[in-house]
Amino acid sequence: MVAIALTQTAVVATSVYLHRTLAHRALAVHPVADVLFRTVLWLTTGQLRQEWVAVHRKHHAFTDREGDPHSPRLLGLWRVQLLNAYYYQREGRNPDTIQTFARDIPEDRLDRAVFSKGWIGLVLGIALLCLVLGLWPGLIAALAHAVFYVFILAPLINSVGHWRGAQNFGNTAYNSSVLAWVTGGESLHNNHHAHPRAPKFSVRRDGEQRRMRGPGAIESRARTS
Question: Which of 97, 141, 206, 221 could be disulfide-bonded to 2 (CB atoms 3.0-4.6 Å)?
Answer without folding.
Answer: 141
